[in-house]
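Exercise 3.2. Students should predict the tertiary structure of the chain below and write it as structure tokens, then compare their answer with the key that follows.

Predict this chain's 3D structure.
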Amino acid sequence: MSIIDISEVKPGSHVTLHYRLSLADGAEVINTFSDKPATLLLGAGQLAPPLEDILLGLKVGHHSTFQLAPGQAFGPRNPELIQRVSLATLRENSMIGEDFSPGDLVEFNAPGGGRYAGVLKEVGETSALFDFNHPLAGQALAFEVKIIGIL
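Answer key:
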């Protein structure tokens, strides 16, 4: 007599899986299928909550691809998150002199601790323009998952 594992992914589960996240045009963002699988703790912020929600209820061996509408996984793009940062502020954070180019992801110290990041769009004479949206915000995505184990 064999015991069949009927466990399914629940909040707080440790899930070992392969996953691939790609843009609508097929460009891969992340792919664990060609490497070792990932082990994630649901609810720990290792995946965006909408991606974690997709995993809930899946069983070991499940393998499929989910199509996500623009903004579904990482939220819509927020124009208020495109902001100018003065070069004086960048100097105060000792970031002037570092070699940044438009398109670079730059990390900042957040007031009160912690860190946040923005993509540098352009550097002017007195300020730099940053996009603090998640790089995948507003994007249509494909999320392929294969559940290997659940604890």
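Discussion points: The chain is about 10% helix and 40% strand. The domain at 14-74+136-150 is CATH 3.10.50.40 (Chitinase A; domain 3).
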